[in-house]
């Protein structure tokens, strides 16, 4: 009898076909914000950090939240994906993870009323209990623009080499 059958999780290390890609196993590193996007040389540090996890056997990594537009920033200079220049910077991360046999997905995150900056927008102008800034309520047109920003962000993430 194989060792896998003697464990309480016999499928954990088995490949998983997601349809659009196959994971080498079923281990996932959930999203966490590391704050490296804002640092000088931060993308190289992120690439090394995530690549080490892939090298250790993690099949799928989910990045910390990356904003689709300026108003969705968590804080000034936080991660965002709004241009080909941003996609090019992210390529070092995806290349490093892929070189170690891992897959990586980019979490698109609009911080809404939790944005720690005066440009924050949300569904309503209700201030978050954890930030000093009151967001501006989104108009119908601003909602449509934000949806378009998500679409553009997802397209740029694909161009950067993200797997999802």
UniProtKB/TrEMBL annotation:
EC number: 1.3.1.34
Enzyme class name: oxidoreductase
Cofactor annotation: FMN; [4Fe-4S] cluster
Gene3D superfamilies membership: Aldolase class I
Residue span, NADH:flavin oxidoreductase/NADH oxidase N-terminal domain: 12-164
Keyword Transferase: no
SUPFAM superfamilies with a match to the protein in the record: FMN-linked oxidoreductases
Keyword line: Flavoprotein, FMN, Iron, Iron-sulfur, Metal-binding, Oxidoreductase
GO molecular function: 2,4-dienoyl-CoA reductase (NADPH) activity; FMN binding; iron-sulfur cluster binding; metal ion binding
InterPro entries recorded: Aldolase_TIM, NADH:flavin_oxidoreductase, OxRdtase_FMN_N
Name this protein carries in UniProt: NADPH-dependent 2,4-dienoyl-CoA reductase
Protein species of origin: Alteromonas australica
């Amino acid at each position: 009898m194989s060792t896998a059958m003697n464990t309480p999780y016999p499928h954990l290390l088995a490949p998983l076909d997601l349809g659009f890609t196959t994971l080498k196993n079923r281990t996932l590193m959930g999203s966490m914000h590391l704050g490296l996007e804002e640092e000088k040389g931060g993308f190289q540090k992120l690439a090394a950090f995530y690549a080490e996890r892939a090298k250790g056997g993690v099949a799928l990594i989910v990045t910390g939240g990356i904003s689709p537009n300026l108003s969705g920033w968590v804080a000034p200079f936080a991660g965002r994906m709004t241009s080909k220049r941003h996609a090019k910077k992210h390529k070092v991360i995806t290349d490093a993870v892929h070189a170690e046999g891992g897959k990586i997905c980019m979490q698109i995150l609009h911080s809404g009323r939790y944005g720690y900056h005066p440009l924050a927008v949300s569904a309503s102008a209700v201030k978050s209990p954890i930030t000093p800034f009151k967001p501006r309520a989104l108009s119908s047109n601003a909602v449509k623009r934000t949806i378009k920003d998500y679409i553009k962000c997802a397209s740029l993430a694909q161009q950067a080499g993200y797997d999802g």
